[in-house]
Amino acid sequence: MQFYIKPIGVIISPYKSKAECPTQGKFSEETFTIEIFQEFEEGLKDIETCTHLIILYWLDRARRNTLIAIPPQDRREHGVFATRSPHRPNPIGFAVVELIERKGRKLVVKGLDAVDGTPVIDIKPYSSDLDCVENAKIGWFEEGKKE
Fold first, then answer.
1. Model confidence, pTM
2. Following CA atoms 44, 45, 46, 50 in sequence, which dihedral angle do they give, to the nearest 10 degrees?
3. I need a surface site. Which of 18, 41, 61, 128 has the fewest CB within 10 A?
4. Residue among 29, 57, 51 at smallest CA distance from 126
5. Residue 52 within any structural domain of the chain
6. Could you tell me if 58 and 134 are in contact, meaning their C-beta atoms sit under 8 angstroms apart?
7. Domain count, the chain
8. Containing domain of residue 19, as a range?
9. CATH number where 36 lies
């Protein structure tokens, strides 16, 4: 089965290369602009009432033939689906960002880890009541913190 995902916008980022990006969006202090394509502008109705958003984006510079990853925090091999590696069969990026302001079709946000020109594939409102899972763990990551 194959399917097509149509980008809804693009990220305007201060980071021009992968090497400049932090490993996770929560470590970024920079502001970003997400420019939504005109045909999707109506979908932004009421988005300014949200304090935080989930941004799904296509990591178009990532390798797609990777099934084993070595995370920088661990240095041991893990299956790519047990890691946050950008290199994976379907390189979808995920970040919870703070919405600073909406300017028409542009959203100014904080908390991304994407390079300039990265395609946006979806936006959803973040809710701490619905999306936060208390006590969630990544076993190998927790083991590494103890060492």
1. 0.86
2. -10
3. 128
4. 51
5. yes
6. no
7. 1
8. 9-65+89-127
9. 2.40.30.70
SS3 sequence, the chain?
CCCCCCCCEEEECCCCCHHHCCCCHHHCCCEEEEEECHHHHHHHCCHHHCCEEEEEEECCCCCCCCCEECCCCCCCCEEHHHCCCCCCCCCEEEEEEEEEEEECCEEEEECCCCCCCCEEEEEEECCHHHHCCCCCCCHHHHHHHHC
In whole angstroms, what is the distance from residue 96 CA to residue 47 CA?
Answer: 14
Tell me if 38 sits within 8 A of 59, measured CB to CB: no
Whether residue 100 is contained in a domain is answered as yes
d(CA 71, CA 82): 10
In tens, the pLDDT along 40-68 reads: 999 999 999 999 999 999 998 888 898 99
Q: pLDDT by residue (tens digit) across 11-35?
A: 999 888 777 766 666 667 789 999 9
**Residue type at 130?**
L
Residue 118 in domain: yes
Residue type, 10: V
Domain membership flag for residue 139: no
